[in-house]
Design brief:
The chain is of the alpha/beta class and 245 residues long. 37% of the residues lie in helices and 25% in strands. The protein binds adenosine-5'-triphosphate.
Length: 245
């Protein structure tokens, strides 16, 4: 589904990504973890060419993105959704219009647009909030809108850049549940960048550990499940007691 072949990226003299090759298979929930500055976000942004590599090839869904014209790249990007840590919603648009905007850009006819916006908002459980503005929503609700917007063009792949890093543990678990549902019910391949080990361990089946712009290792894991992420009062007490042992 996603193939990077000897991809490098430099910012001025600094080489942030050093000749990385990796393959992500269709249907995977693939994690990328590592310390701050390891190059995780840059690697993710290379997968939809938000960052253009200095060297190497990026292939998504059978298309070599690095060889496309800008018009074809725009089309190819419709099958690659993306969500961000700070949600990146348009402040002066309603929930409905935030989701509709990507469909307008893709020139989807009005009635079809309406059906898809409602369908996506229902999928993330926000159909009752379609007239609200981002400032009226909680962090978890904002991320749900961002997920609905990313799904509107029916992507094959969803790239997630620290999707839960601004959220508390309960809301984190909620959003991870939505992402798991996107993967299982819609068959969307998911790539998650996070510095939170619990997040990566909960839903990923394969994880790349990055260090200094390189792949340190890639491991297959059995997802631990989302239920382990909690902020119930008991959970806090358990963690404190464990820490004191
Ligand atoms: N647009 C840019 N211009 C200059 N340097 C950049 C740019 N983007 C990233 N870098 C540098 O590249 C390196 C990798 O950054 P990146 O954001 O990919 O790391 P990260 O592992 O995602 O870190 P964090 O978890 O802190 O976001 C860092 O040293 C960063 O300062």
């Amino acid at each position: 589904m996603i193939k990077l072949h000897k991809v490098s990226k430099s910012f001025s003299q600094f080489q942030a990504i050093k000749s990385i090759s990796l393959t992500i298979n269709k249907g995977e929930i693939y994690g990328i973890i590592g310390t701050s500055g390891a190059g995780k976000s840059t690697l993710l942004r290379l997968m939809n060419l938000l960052e253009v590599p200095n060297e190497g090839d990026v292939e998504v869904n059978g298309q070599q993105l690095t060889k496309l014209t800008s018009k074809s790249l725009r089309q190819a990007r419709q099958s690659i959704g993306m969500i961000f840590q700070h949600f990146n919603l348009v402040a002066n648009k309603t929930v409905y219009d935030n989701v509709a905007v990507s469909l307008e850009l893709a020139k989807i006819p009005k009635q079809e647009r309406k059906n898809r916006v409602i369908e996506c908002l229902q999928f993330v459980g926000l159909e009752k909030l379609l007239d609200k503005y981002p400032a009226e929503l909680s962090g978890g609700q904002k991320q749900r809108v961002a997920i609905a917007r990313a799904l509107a063009n029916r992507p094959e792949v969803l790239l997630c850049d620290e999707p839960t890093s601004s959220l508390d543990p309960n809301t984190t678990a909620e959003i991870l549940g939505v992402l798991e549902n996107v993967n299982k019910s819609l068959g969307v391949t998911i790539v998650i960048v996070s510095h939170e080990m619990e997040v990566i361990k909960s839903i990923c089946n394969r994880v790349t550990v990055m260090a200094d712009g390189e792949i340190h290792d890639t491991v297959c894991i059995e997802p631990a499940g989302i239920a382990n992420i909690s902020n119930s009062p008991n959970w806090f007490v358990e963690q404190l007691v464990k820490g004191g042992e």
